[in-house]
Specification:
With about 140 residues, the protein is mostly helical. About 70% of the residues lie in helices and about 0% in strands. The protein is built from seven helices and no strands. Helix 1 packs across helix 2 and helix 4 runs antiparallel to helix 6.
């Protein structure tokens, strides 16, 4: 049961990166909008969207497959952790009770906390993740 749970966690968290990456590749203006709104325009250049999207897709696919887990799990944790930090106020006040107001509150950001935590679980239980390409290849 543990290996199936880790597989499902791996697929869910990895596909999130794939989806985010594809969004940047297919619709770079959406990635720039997110950067402007949540990352203070740090990566708003259109020229950065495709390379950053490709990195996210590659990391996400490696996570889904369970390939190079020793490397890609921490990379995924960094990507998701930075994303979590960018929306910290939505995590601490999802209902808009004290940091946000009713117009800016958005409970849909709150699952980002669970996704980040899921990645930490993948790191902690990597040896138990036996339904992975790494395990099958003996890596």
């Amino acid at each position: 049961m543990k290996s199936i749970s880790l597989l499902l966690m791996r697929v869910g968290t990895g596909l999130l990166l794939v989806i985010w990456g594809l969004m940047k590749i297919v619709k770079p203006e959406a990635g720039m909008h997110v950067s402007d709104k949540y990352y203070h325009g740090l990566v708003s250049m259109e020229a950065l969207q495709m390379p950053w999207g490709i990195v996210q897709v590659v990391v996400g696919l490696a996570v889904v497959l369970g390939l190079m887990r020793k490397f890609v799990y921490p990379v995924q944790a960094i990507i998701l952790g930075v994303g979590l930090l960018a929306i910290w106020n939505y995590i601490l006040d999802p209902l808009g009770l004290y940091l946000l107001d009713k117009d800016t509150a958005n409970v849909l950001f709150f699952p980002s906390f669970a996704v980040f935590a899921g990645t930490l679980i993948l790191i902690a239980f990597r040896e138990d993740d036996t339904i992975s390409l790494d395990s099958k290849l003996g890596l």
